[in-house]
Each structure stands twice: as C-alpha cells, then as structure tokens.
Amino acid sequence: MGSRRARRAHGRVQPVHSPKKAGPTAAISKTQRKKARRSQLRNEIISAAKAARKAKRTQPPLLLAVVSVCGARDEEMRALCNTVHATETEKSVQPFETCILSREGKNERQVLLAALDLAKVADIMLLVFAGRADMDIQSIELLRALRAQGMPSIHVMAIGDGAEDPALRKLRGRQLAAESLGEDHALRPIQFWPQAKSEKATNNKSALRRIFAKPPRVVSWRSRYGYMKVESALVNNASSEAAASLSLCGYIRGRGMSANELVHVTGFGTYAVAKILDCATGTVLSQRDEHQGEPVESVGEVDEMMGEQTWPPEVIGDEEVDEDENDTEKLAKQYDQSLEAEERAEKQMEQEQFMMDETEEDKLSDMDEEKMIVDEEEVHRLRDAAKEDSQFPDEVDVPVNRPARVRFAKYRGLKSLRTGEWDPKEQLPIDYANLFQFRNLPATRKRVLDSAKEEGEKAKAGNCENFVPCGRKVYIQLQDVPQDVQASIIVTLQSNQTPVVASGMLRHENRRSVVHFGVQRVDDEEDGQAIKAKTPLEMHCGFVRFEGRPMFSENNPNSDKHKMERFLRHGRYTVVSFYGPAIYAPAPALLCHRNGSVIAAGSALGADVDRIILKRIVFTGYPFKTQKRRSVVRFMFFNADDIRWFKPVELWTKLGRSGHILEPVGTHGHMKCIFDNVVLHHDTICMTLYKRVYPKLLE
C-alpha cells in the first residue's frame, strides 16, 4: 500500500525543491528580460532602416510621369510639377524627378508614342484631372494602351475646381481605375493645390507622403533589362563621315547594363556600345570586348551556293511556244507565265501602296492634327469583303476563262489539316535566306534569362566585372550612329516634348526572325476598320517597335499547321506573324495603325521560322443529277482537264458527306462523283485546297 505520505499524495508528483542558482542570471527579473528584448528589437529596426536608406542612396531618383487625362492644361501641369518640387518632403523619401506628357502641338500618334515611351521607364504615374469636364476619347484610348503595355504604380491627382468635390473625385477615380487597372478596381484621388499658399502646404505635404508611402510597383517584363531615360546627348567625334560616336547621359535603371550588350534607342535603332563612362569622374566602368560582345548585324548573309537552301521556282520570261511541244511543256510555260504575272501584280500593288503611304505622311506632317485620309469606298469594300468572308469562309470562284490548274498551281489537297504532312523547309521564299533560326528556343530563352538574372544579382553585390549596376549616372558611348539619327535624337531632347529611351538587349534578341504575337482586338467593333492580312501595321513589343506587313492565323495547339485568317476579327484570339527581332516571351505587344491608333493588344509568343501558316480555299459546286450515293456536279470547274487534275483531292458536302471524283462528263465542267451516303439535291459540294503563306517586308 505504500507509506502514509504516498497515500496522501493520491498519485500526484511532488515538486523537487532545488537550491537557488548563484550567478549573473539570478539577479535578472522578468521585467528586465522584457526590456532587453525590446531594446534588441529596436536596434534591429534601426539597422534595417539604415540599410534601407543606404540602398535608396544607391538607387536612381524615382521618375514621376505626370499625364493629363481630363481637362488639365500644360500650364497647370508645369505649375503642379514646380509645386511638387518646392514642397518639403520627409528625409526618408527617395529623391525623385518629374516628366510631363505634353499634348500641345502634337497629333494623336505623337501623344501615344510619347506616353508609351514614358510609361516604359516611369516608376510612378500620376493621372491628373482638372475641372468638371468629362474624359475624351483620346484619353480613354491612351489609358487602354498603357494598361496593355503594363502600368507602374498609379495615383490619381485632382487639381482645380474639381478637387474639392468629393462626389466628382470618387467618379473620376472609378473611371480612371476601370480604364487603367480594370473594372474591379478603384482609385482614391489625391487633392493637390498648385501654387499653394502656407495654409495648403501641409495638405500638399501629406499628399506627397501618400504617393511615396508604398514602394513602386515592379513591372515584370522590363525588370530583366537595363534601361535609362536619356537626359542629354553629345556627339564625340563630329566629322564629315556618315556615322560617328554618340554619348547618351542618364541614370541606369532596372537590371544594369554592360558594354558587351547592344543598346536599342526606341524609335532610332540598335547600336553597339564602345564603353560606359561614369558621369562624375569619367572612369571607364565597362569596355566592349569584340570576342564576347553581341554583333550588331541583324540579318544573315545569303550563301547562294548552299545546296540545302530551297529557293522559290525561277521565273521564266515570255517566250514563244513551239507547236511541237507536248502538253506538259505547254502547261509548264503557262504556269511560269502565271507566276511572273502574279509577282508583277503584287510588286505593283506594293509600290502603289508605298507611294500612297508616303504621300499621306507628307500631307499629315503639314497638318495640325494628324488623321489618316481614309477612302470611304475602300473602307466599305473591306467591310463587305470581311462580311462575305464570315458568311462564306474561304470560298472562291474558279475563273471561267483561265484553267484552274494554272491559277491555283501552288495549292495542294490535304486529307487532314491536323495529321497531314507538310515539309517546313519546302520552297521557302528568298526572304528566309536572311533570317535566323533557333535550334531549341525554350532552352536558349531559359539560359539567356537565367544568365541575365545572375548578372544583375552579382552587380548589386559588386561581384560582377565589366557590368554597371543600377543607380549610376553614366555616359553610354554608341558606335557608328548615322548623322541624321544623331540630329533627330538631339532635336528631340532639346524640344523636351518626347522622352528618349535607351535599353539593353539580351543575347540574340537583335536577330531577325519570324516572330509571333497572340493578340485580341481592343478597338470599338462598330467604328473599327476591317484589317486585312498583309496590311502595313506597326508592332510595339517591350522597348522595341517595328513595322511590317503581318500575316494572321489561328492558334492550333494540336497541330504544327495553322489556318490563315484573312481578317483580324473582334472577339477572337489571333496569332500575328512579323519579320522582326526575336524578342523573348513574355513581353507586351501592341498592334497599331501607322497613324497611331491601337488595334489589338496581347503578348509575344517567340520566334519560329518553321511555323506553317496555310491559306485555305474552298471550291463549291452543286448537284445537277443525284441517284442515291452518286451525283453529277456542275459549276465547280469549267473544263475536263481541270477535273482530271484535281481528281485525287477528296470532296465533302455541307451536310456532312464525303466522297471523290469519278470522271468528267462532257467538256463543260460536269463531273461524276460518289459519296459515302445519299446526296440530297439541295446540298453543296466542296473541295478544300491549301497553300503556305508568309509575312511580307515593308519596303
């Protein structure tokens, strides 16, 4: 049973009383330990704040882009910027610069380009509205374009008469948020008083504190590049030569830059860098190594003796046909003559279009407001063609006076668009000889982006040689800049109307290839113009913009062949293919008219010269006589030779039948056909043919 003491404990464990410890911890109480812990946390906070202030000193000044969206004039914007700089800010606020998007004396295209270039480098964007006027259409389109490109941190600022009305501020905040961020967001406008007196200075100070309270938003696509807003330019060795060296001055932002990279000046071209100098001391921070530097050539050399290159068929001139030639030779001569005639017609159309564009640009340069001169008959014709193509997709009429086997000699039949075979290297056009092809684009992209990220991290830690980190004010010395480009850059900087942006390019991005972009139309469907394939358009992708005559196609993930789209339609995801620099995905893409209006927005998909785009045409005929599965079809062809030529191609009907041609009947294009089921008299007989198509260069 145990002892009496154990029975009284009822199973409880008795505490063990040990003697008190002697030492330094014996005198520390619980209150003293809490006080020591608070002191330790305070020291950690102070050290973190010191590190943050030290990091801010190494960062470039924040760039505030001031954009008028509703009623704010340029004079009010300049007064606003002067008041912002004159307002006393806290010591913890990072130094900042302001840049105004001026609209005076600019047309729609110039305003759009200036806004897009400014948003590429801005850290914070201030959307300013004044008065009680409503937002105009140009401001709404401008915000949509900025949203598609990628917006930095956004703040709405109210000045003038509308600043003191809370209901108007709330309405403008919701409108601007819907256009710039989305309908599910809302922005709270900040009141600001330009040319404020002492009683309003405190309110202005609190407004600036609210703007700089949060760190700037990171725009993911530009964080992998080094870029700068050019403040000034200097011609180093001015001479009578056609090209000279040009130095661009500014703060390096983003990842950092190296002299071994190419520098792209948005709107002015891509150039090699000789060296990068420090603005304060003139020390060389980065020097170009000719063995490791990226070459500036964007196109490849054409080797006409290379046997692996598949050239287009040669065009034979007009020659007399001997009577002794057989039918095959006559058909070959007719085929060659038709190819020559088609190429002459295409070149003539391109020259006429080019001359028309030049004439329009000359006229528009003399106007106060640039607006494209659009022919109403041409607009109605394109709209009718787009409507007809949507009702009867890909249907064409066989010419009566010309053999179909000659007119459609480049087309072929496919059993299935998904499983049919098509050699991507077969009969490539002459333009493909200048392009570059990636053996494994995903692996190359991953290696280049990982290397760029690693260089940026090493540069921040100071462990990367021949690389300039972010935050340094430098001179970037460009090589072989033409004199007309130098003059244009200097005039643009002196006018202070449009920002000049310089950005580094990653490895292989300057190579010309066939680049593809997935886009959707963003303009108004009712007022939007029908856009046909091969229309001269302008593409804005990241820091780069270029022109071309693109090809539209579907995105077929289950096949290596994609059907061409004749028109860029609303509400449909379309792939746009250009000849251009091989920009790595992801990157924002804006498809614009040459007059500046935005058509579609999306993102880059990458470069792929082997992407097969097939143009589909459909011949249609109608049953003349039917007997169960057999039928006599007319109006598809108009001679017996064409029927024999296209006999191997499979037929199909709009009611779901499939069949093939048996033989021609007579000499007027009637033919006997057999199908897999009973053919109805009101059915339509169809034949599908395909031809590979390519984008066009803008001459």
From TrEMBL:
<feature type="region of interest" description="Disordered">
    <location>
        <begin position="1"/>
        <end position="40"/>
    </location>
</feature>
<comment type="similarity">
    <text>Belongs to the TRAFAC class translation factor GTPase superfamily. Bms1-like GTPase family. TSR1 subfamily.</text>
</comment>
<dbReference type="GO" id="GO:0030688">
    <property type="term" value="C:preribosome, small subunit precursor"/>
</dbReference>
<dbReference type="InterPro" id="IPR012948">
    <property type="entry name" value="AARP2CN"/>
</dbReference>
<dbReference type="InterPro" id="IPR007034">
    <property type="entry name" value="BMS1_TSR1_C"/>
</dbReference>
<dbReference type="GO" id="GO:0005525">
    <property type="term" value="F:GTP binding"/>
</dbReference>
<dbReference type="InterPro" id="IPR039761">
    <property type="entry name" value="Bms1/Tsr1"/>
</dbReference>
<dbReference type="Pfam" id="PF04950">
    <property type="entry name" value="RIBIOP_C"/>
</dbReference>
<keyword id="KW-0175">Coiled coil</keyword>
<dbReference type="GO" id="GO:0034511">
    <property type="term" value="F:U3 snoRNA binding"/>
</dbReference>
<feature type="domain" description="AARP2CN">
    <location>
        <begin position="203"/>
        <end position="283"/>
    </location>
</feature>
<dbReference type="GO" id="GO:0003924">
    <property type="term" value="F:GTPase activity"/>
</dbReference>
<feature type="compositionally biased region" description="Basic residues">
    <location>
        <begin position="1"/>
        <end position="11"/>
    </location>
</feature>
<dbReference type="GO" id="GO:0000462">
    <property type="term" value="P:maturation of SSU-rRNA from tricistronic rRNA transcript (SSU-rRNA, 5.8S rRNA, LSU-rRNA)"/>
</dbReference>
<feature type="coiled-coil region">
    <location>
        <begin position="332"/>
        <end position="362"/>
    </location>
</feature>
<protein>
    <submittedName>
        <fullName>Pre-rRNA-processing protein TSR1-like</fullName>
    </submittedName>
</protein>
<dbReference type="Pfam" id="PF08142">
    <property type="entry name" value="AARP2CN"/>
</dbReference>
<dbReference type="GO" id="GO:0000479">
    <property type="term" value="P:endonucleolytic cleavage of tricistronic rRNA transcript (SSU-rRNA, 5.8S rRNA, LSU-rRNA)"/>
</dbReference>
<dbReference type="GO" id="GO:0005634">
    <property type="term" value="C:nucleus"/>
</dbReference>
<feature type="domain" description="Ribosome biogenesis protein BMS1/TSR1 C-terminal">
    <location>
        <begin position="395"/>
        <end position="693"/>
    </location>
</feature>
<feature type="compositionally biased region" description="Basic residues">
    <location>
        <begin position="31"/>
        <end position="40"/>
    </location>
</feature>
